[in-house]
Design goal:
The structure is a single chain. It contains 20 helices and 20 strands. It has a 7-stranded mixed sheet, with helices on both faces. It starts with a helix and ends in a 10-residue tail after the last strand.
Length: about 550
């Protein structure tokens, strides 16, 4: 809380030790819900694939490469120019784009009758001509599909809802349209875009040209599995210069991948021997990563096939009038991310939200366990602490018994709070009142501090919530409500069978997580504690006693 520095200085001059000890009075006394681990500084988490993309971008930029955007949509004839006799094999893995044709729509008398029925009025000759003009413009491509409804609406002075009904019932041609394929494809290799880009750069850019692009590619796989996705990211670069050799690719590989912790590189000829590379220049890059040694992935040896490079063939470059040698290196971003994040499945890495399996860390579980109702005021929080202190001190006292816990002013009224047990042959509090909520082996347990549960407290995550703590906050909350309304209150808990009975709320997502893995939420036990508040004489009217 805010304090007066002058007042503190004066107190310190008179009695430094006393002033120093009173410093604790200026700290917040938070409600249980505002204590750690529920109180935390949360932060967003980047997606592993996009985090890897960002690291690759920064790595390329540090090496002096310039970032480019290559065409995503590539006509099939470009693939034939680039890949030659291999084009059909490449195109077999490509997605072809299709589009809806623009129908030639006529306006017959029967259709005009239906339009009049929908509009609820006659349609003028000028409006009919304007409608014909809009439909004709749509056929020619002058009006786009998403503009068709508002254009017709303006032409015939009708609301959009009526026009939408007309397109559905009067002009079935629109409803029955079927996509027609084109020769355009989504690129399956970044190479498809590099040829197009370089053909427009070689004659106006000084050599050497060093470019990179980290972007999405598409491949029509028969199915997606742990190692294949139909949409993936390629981290690709090119170097164009008058002199070029495979040693350029080796140097780029080491310079790029060493920034991710790889070392001790090996280079092996690639058996695929693509025709757009010069024979003997298509090389696979293997690298050693000490962090992978002994891991439970297939890279436990530390060695990984991580990239491929090659020098584009003059026969392919000549199709684009490119007169200089070009080296190209590429790697799959998702594959690199799998290595860096220890993932075994591309689908789980890329689309975790679509996977049936999910995981929470113990501390994340603990943060999803809340105190449901808490006191609203500083005095209310003092009441809750006083209830806890009274129960801890006198909890094992034989009953019947009653102990005053707090007396003071709340909302302008003076009240007294007591912990009571009127029944005989028991104790002020039941045996489980000091049980604590702990996350242990993905289970949520309400357990006592006994040798039996020592491992749970040592290895698990403590929420900082005891049964009596949560109950005291509920009691203080209800005391505040009762005091506002000018009445006494009684808050009681008996045998706890669920978290809610002890004023603990489990996040619904956490409940689903625990039950999906057939784990336990075991918060139960005999608490048997009663708290009463009483308005002191005269304060039923807001008067001080």
């Amino acid at each position: 809380m805010k304090f007066d520095p002058a007042e503190i200085r004066e107190a310190a001059e008179k009695d430094f030790d006393s002033a120093w000890k009173r410093g604790i009075d200026y700290l917040e006394r938070p409600s249980l819900e505002r204590t750690y681990p529920r109180r935390s500084y949360s932060h967003g988490r980047p997606h592993p694939v996009f985090e890897t993309i960002q690291r690759l971008r920064e790595a390329y930029l540090r090496m002096g490469f310039t970032e480019m955007m290559n065409p995503v949509i590539v006509d099939a004839q470009e693939v034939h120019r680039q890949f030659g006799s291999e084009a059909l094999a490449v195109l077999d893995r490509c997605f072809y784009l299709a589009g809806l044709p623009r129908p030639d729509v006529g306006i017959s008398e029967s259709r005009l009758s239906m339009i009049r029925s929908i509009m609820g009025r006659d349609i003028t000759a000028e409006e009919i001509e304007a409608l014909r003009e809009v439909l004709h413009s749509y056929k020619k491509g002058a009006v786009e599909g998403d503009d068709l409804v508002p254009e017709i609406s303006r032409a015939i002075n009708a609301p959009d809802s009526q026009v939408s009904m007309m397109l559905e019932s009067v002009f079935p041609e629109f409803r029955e349209l079927k996509p027609e394929p084109t020769s355009r494809t989504l690129r399956s290799h970044m190479t498809s875009g590099w040829f197009i880009s370089l053909s427009n750069l070689w004659y106006r850019t000084p050599l050497p040209v060093r470019l990179f692009s980290v972007d999405r590619c598409f491949r029509r796989e028969q199915s997606e599995d742990a190692a294949r996705l139909m949409s993936y990211h390629s981290a690709s670069c090119v170097v164009m210069d008058e002199e070029m050799s495979v040693d350029e690719g080796k140097a780029i590989s080491e310079g790029l991948l060493s920034q991710f912790g790889f070392e001790n590189f090996r280079f092996r000829p690639d058996e695929k021997r693509s025709k757009y590379y010069i024979p003997g220049t298509q090389i696979e890059v293997y690298a050693y990563h000490p962090g992978l040694v002994g891991s439970e992935t297939k890279y436990g040896s530390g060695w990984v096939e991580i990239a491929t490079f090659g020098v584009y063939s003059p026969t392919a470059l000549a199709q684009y009038d490119i007169p200089y040698p070009v080296l190209n290196l590429g790697l799959g971003v998702e594959r690199l991310a799998m290595i860096l994040y220890g993932s075994k499945d591309l689908r789980a890495l890329s689309y975790p939200q679509l996977q049936p399996d999910w995981s929470l860390k113990p501390i994340e579980i603990a943060r999803m366990i809340h105190v449901d109702k808490s006191p609203m005021t500083s005095a209310g929080r003092d009441i809750a602490r006083s209830i806890v202190e009274t129960c801890v001190k006198h909890g094992n006292t034989p009953s019947p018994c009653e102990f005053d816990a707090w007396e003071g002013e709340l909302f302008g009224r003076r009240i007294k709070v007591s912990v009571v047990e009127p029944e005989e042959n028991t104790k002020l509090c039941g045996p489980a009142y000091l049980n604590e909520i702990v996350v242990y082996r993905n289970e949520i347990l309400g357990i006592p501090r006994t040798p039996k549960w020592e491992a749970a407290f040592e290895e698990g995550v403590q929420t900082g919530i005891r049964f009596i703590d949560a109950f005291a906050e509920l009691a203080a909350h209800e005391i505040e409500i009762a005091t506002i309304e000018g009445r006494d209150s009684e808050t009681r808990v008996r045998i706890v069978r669920t978290a809610g009975e002890i004023n603990v709320r489990i996040d619904p997502a956490l409940e689903r997580y625990i039950t999906s893995y057939k784990k336990r939420i075991d918060i139960r036990g005999p608490v048997f504690t009663t708290v009463r508040s009483k308005l002191l004489q005269g304060d039923q009217y807001g008067e001080k006693a």
